[in-house]
Amino acid sequence: MIQLAAEVTSVVPTESTQQAIGYPTLFVLVLFGALVPVIPTGALVSSAAVVAFHQTAPFALALVFVTGALAAFLGDAALYLLGRRGMRSKNGSRWLKAIRSRAPEERLTQAQEKLAGHGVAVLVLSRLVPAGRIPVMLACLLAEWPMRRFARGNLPACLAWAATYQVIGILGGSLFEEPWEGVVAAIALTVLVSAAPALWRRLRRTTTV
Fold it and tell me: In 10 A of CB 197, how many CB atoms?
């Protein structure tokens, strides 16, 4: 029995091992997800918060918050710099084309109007609105915002984004004893939050037709 317990303990990763692997992995995935918006980065932060909630390390949740916010900020900054480079180029760039392809004309027009009226506040809120980040970023590029001004507004945006999805993860982790159950709940909640605006717009279109 003692030997079996020892074997199980040797197989299950310790908290220190999980942290050594988990935080760099979270950073890379969120950073990559900011550059290529196909990875559900909000779900990643929520899932990491669930795991951290069940750990005994005192600063686990704080490290998830810092890692997620920093990776999102650096990813956004890199994408904005690549977009500015494409704006100055005669032939554009594939990064600028990718940004434009993810900003429908209607959403871009709304983002430009709000950006002209409210400035940095729109940028702060853009990360909290599903599919709102890219249209606002493109609006900033078209308005020729310098990198410093964009970064000044994007920093609180990334902090608010990381805090929001971490709270979702904490709620999921507090409802269930097993971490995997909380992860499933957090992912389901983030998917629901992300899909709700699109479903609402589709419902409004069908009712107005």
Answer: 13
pLDDT at 205: 55
Q: Coil, strand or helix: which one is 36?
A: coil
Rg (CA), the chain: 20
Paired tokens of 135: 């249209």
Of 21, 122, 16, 127, the closest CA to residue 69 belongs to 127
| Rounded-to-integer distance, Cα 151 and Cα 138, Å | 14
Low-confidence ranges of the chain (pLDDT < 50): 1-13, 200
Q: Is the distance from CB of 86 to CB of 95 less than 8 angstroms?
A: yes
Contact between residue 50 and residue 173 where contact means Cβ atoms under 8 Å apart: yes
What is the count of structural domains for the chain?
Answer: 1
Structural domain including 196 reads 2-208
Output DSSP code: residue 28. Answer: H
User: How far is the C-alpha of 33 from the C-alpha of 49, rounded, in Å?
Assistant: 18
